[in-house]
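Bench notes, afternoon.
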Amino acid sequence: MLPYEPREIEPRWQGVWEASRLDEVREGDDKPCYYVLEMFPYPSGDVHMGHVRNYSIGDVISRYKRMRGFNVLHPIGWDSFGLPAENAAIKQDSTPAEWTYRNIERQRASLKQLGFSYDWNRTVITSDVNYYHWGQWIFLKLWEQGLVERRSSPVNWCPSCKTVLANEQVLGEGACWRCGSTVERRELEQWFFKITNYAQELLDDLDTLEGWPERVRQMQANWIGRSTGAEIDFALCDADKNPSDERITVFTTRPDTLFGCTFFLLAPEHPLVKRLVEGTVFEAEVARVVELAATATAVERSKGERKKNGAFTGRFVVNPINGEKVPIWIADYVMMDYGTGAVMAVPSGDQRDFEFARAYGLPIPPVVIAEDDPLFETLYEARERKLDDVTWEAAFDGAGVMVQSAEFTGMKGGKDSPGSQAVIDKLAAQGAGRATVNFRLRDWLISRQRYWGNPIPAIYCDNCGIVPVPEEDLPVVLPMDADVAKGETLASRPEFYHVTCPRCGAAAHRETDTMDTFTCSSWYYLRYTDPHNTALPFAREKVDAWMPVDQYIGGIEHAILHLLYSRFFTKALRDIGLLAFDEPFSNLLTQGMVKLNGEVMSKSKGNVIAPEDMIARFGVDALRLYTLFMAPPDKDLDWSQEGLEGVSRFVNRVWRSAHDLLGETVVDEEGTLLSLYDESLDAAAAAARGKELNRELHRVIGKVTADIDRFNFNTAISAVMELVNTISSYLRVPLALRDEPLAHRAARTLVLLLAPFTPHICEELWQVVFGEEGSVHLQSWPEFDPKQAIADVVELAVQINGKVRARVTVATSATEDEVREASLAAAASLIGDKPVKKLVVVPGKLVSIVV
């Protein structure tokens, strides 16, 4: 037997697979389709251990499903537009294109070295014109459907990246998701995708995604943020005038608290603010608050513990429920892009309003109180306002009883309460309000003031306004040689910028914003089904045949951004008639991170373990197997060099065991005999070990099959290790006493079970050592026979008063009475003359005796 040499075996088989196009999908195959996909990488540098783990998970599923009789689509590509390429080009005095494609080739070589079963003929690179062409085409189709809009809006601006960010790209502390800089708020003309048109469907269809982690579904539900309540119209007025015809509408989830509205708030960006105070004594103070708000991020402004900045405008609105005049203030914790940018402030029922009222001396009358509140006895029948302030330390925002609320006093108050509905009914009868639903989800801001992205297909004409680029003029080609280090932009490239208007023929210019890179990753999984189509982004019959993706794999960090946007794209493209399904990903696996000493690996921390170094020492198969064995896929993996060494030893043990099962004498590199037969074994003992090996083969086939189906790769590998232990026991049987067909079947079963995990060594064993025809990866998965997996005997634990005190071996076919008798006999010396009060048999596991 030759020693196991992964450095020779692995690249050789990778070359054979590529030359034979083993992993390319066969169109028209009559096998059922299965689509497995890992989130594609950004080409920012070398492949790291996180990639190895993520893509090894997908590769196991792909190879396993192919062996189970599926026609498997398993593609790869690169999400290659984006800001890092521009920053790197500036540092390296290069172009974003050169940096990007150089990294793609490095990553491509690394992924091939890892032996992943990708269909490289279907590679998608989002910065290739034959891909982003169709991103522009989809933009135009969405525009035709009214799902694209350009409008002025307060936006999140990253001063470091010098571009706007979608709400989803601002982290919890008001930081840019990409660079960590503090995000500012600015008013700009921007392009939006109207994802809010699908808010309810995006929320409802989460219930259909039973194959997604509950955590991800809940994160999306919270982000969409459906709230039921009412829109209420407040009439604008001066302190000494009657109400005007102008109305300001607010949304509230608590119409039951309307009698407690003692002031009215506008966001500093609200378009009414300037008109309300212009030329008045209140203008300067209001301007100061507006300026303060402009320097803070949306996250900072909404923080509960932050100081509330506000100013009185000198104007009032009329509360439609009781006719009271309510002063209008501006406050920096009110956001223009949530609700209507106006708030009916009820300080007794909202903590931020409570703090604002305390800071500015505004009244806080209680209108909904708990029954155990000391005020309940005084106010529970009070229809008119008897108390203008409370001594509470905080607002009460729970359900309770309405007080000081005219005819509604005594009703149950709270969200969706009878009191809320009664108030809505009265407002509706007056024409001053209506029941409605509001969503936290905002429209998707897709404009980016960067060069390295997909150009937005729009033209600006002085005569015609904003004009879409005609489909026949697509693609709008991005110049690939821009020198961003010298500040070159799309606007500074005359051949790109200057065009004629497609409608009137006058001089015009192109849009110089590019699309958010998430627009590219929101439909790439569709392009994989038909990557070479030059007439459409994909053919309807092909996308409907493969989609939705059966198994999607990626990080939890994409729970809102990429996954929500992809769901929106799928639904929008369905409504255009390009596809016939509702959701892009049937099942989702979010893998854990690879850490070193508890910390995420990163170059900045200097704790990166390079995959190529580990491959050089231990081989690809050992590295892949290690990342799958050391932790469940959805949990973090803490890197251990000793663990990898142990897995490498196991791979070598598989190599030796497979040879020895074929009857070879196994020696190490120095010629030392490694297989030692037990000459004391007779035919009966050999037969018993053969029977145990056969049973273990079937048990492990069943275990590994079930575990892979549940993505419990670590326990599947552990079961194979147990099988190898049983094989080692059988290998002690002298050759003359061995059941040769059983030994050969054990060798083949071992290799077939490991093939999805360690593809190279298994291919070598299958074709070279075993002499089998065809690739191991095209063989059928071993069949599980549950009857043959049943042992003749089983060992049961015997508990006495809750503690295991003995063990007993009984036939698996033993009756309960026989088990009781054997257990009492085994425990007789421990029980003595104590009476047995209770005896319970748990079949196949234990016997519990109470004395």
